[in-house]
Amino acid sequence: MNIKEYIQQWASTYKKELTENIMPFWMKYGWDKVNGGVYTCVNRDGSLMDSTKSVWFQGRFAFVCSFAYNNVEHNAEWLEAAKNTLDFIEKYCFDKDGHMYFSVTATGKPLRKRRYVFSETFAAIAMSEYAIASGDMTYAEKALKLFEDTQRFLNTPGFLAPKFEPEVNLQSHSIIMILINVGSRIREAINEPKLTQQIDESIEKLQKYFMHPEFKALLESVGPNGEFVDTNMTRTINPGHCIETSWFIMEEARLRGWDKNLLDTALTIFNWSWDWGWDKEYGGIINFRDCKNLPPQDYSQDMKFWWPQCETIIASLYAYLATGDEMYLERHKIISDWTYTHFPDKKYGEWYGYLHRDGTVAQPAKGNLYKGPFHVPRMMIKSLVLCEEILKKISNS
Fold first, then answer.
1. For residue 341, with 0-12 CB atoms within 10 Å meaning exposed, 13-18 middle and 19 or more buried, which class applies?
2. Using one digit for the tens of pLDDT, what is the confidence trace for 172-230?
3. E strands in the chain
4. For the whole model, what pTM was predicted?
5. In sequence order, what are the residues at sequence separation of 6 or more whose Cβ sits closer than 8 angstroms to the Cβ of residue 359?
């Protein structure tokens, strides 16, 4: 493999696909220029199936538009869409107690509120990224306040409804890992020590509680002191989620001069999760595994979703940048070849989201309340940046 040519080819592909396919699709079919914000429940051809708006995706879309503006090209339409969506968020997506809704109508009337704080986390990174794109640092302050509110919601007993009955005492990987990225993204706009403190605390929890060498796995749920709990749910490994965590930690390691402890942790998680996730029979990253190799409980356990493939593409490039080990570039080739063979819709654009294990399309819609303009464009933007860093490293060697 000619590494320079290989990386140049992918850099070109990411930029072309982002600017000529993914972003135009969502600007045309998703962005609601009448009411503000973004629709995500669109069919294969972009036609609207449901005008319900996912509040998660209001933040995710505003983030992606700003992230693309900051890292790919200064496209005025992207910046306008980000601001329009942030206006929609601030006007309609917060309840009186400061906790955000999960879904609203096209015009912003609340539909559902859930116990999670992911609406807050995505709105916060959208505000911080927009602050960088626009130069309006009031949005960085808003992002920091939302981060602080999120911590308050999580740490105030009784504020968030419990997921289980009181006798069930578990820790979840999800919120711990997302706060690494939230802290990192906000810190790009405003240098506040509590953000780094949150990142440190999250990584320490992952190392201490969630990484289980006896299974060579990072588990999704553990006991309050990291205990392995032997149930269907708590034996779950989510390879894509773990791989996403690995590149979040790699990003922090790079910002600290490739800190050895952080990099070793990230690579260990990536390597474990690749071994659990890569489907040796059909290819692609599989949804769920059981750490004892028992039948997974989730009905979609053997499917191939779009987002784990995206996270693996990013992580493999990050790992190669960090180590220079061509094993990670080979992983990038394997996952990229499989992903780009099966997920892109060559007729209508964008990507399918849900495939059967063998790579055939399970359903062709381009979006719903959980899939929309986030993982695919974020992967392309982040991977383009990583390719540029790798090429720079090659030219300096």
1. exposed
2. 999 999 999 999 999 999 999 999 999 999 999 999 999 999 999 999 999 999 999 99
3. 53-54, 103-104, 110-112, 171-172, 211-212, 217-218, 221-222, 236-237, 289-290, 304-305, 354-355, 361-363
4. 0.98
5. 282, 283, 284, 304, 338, 341, 342
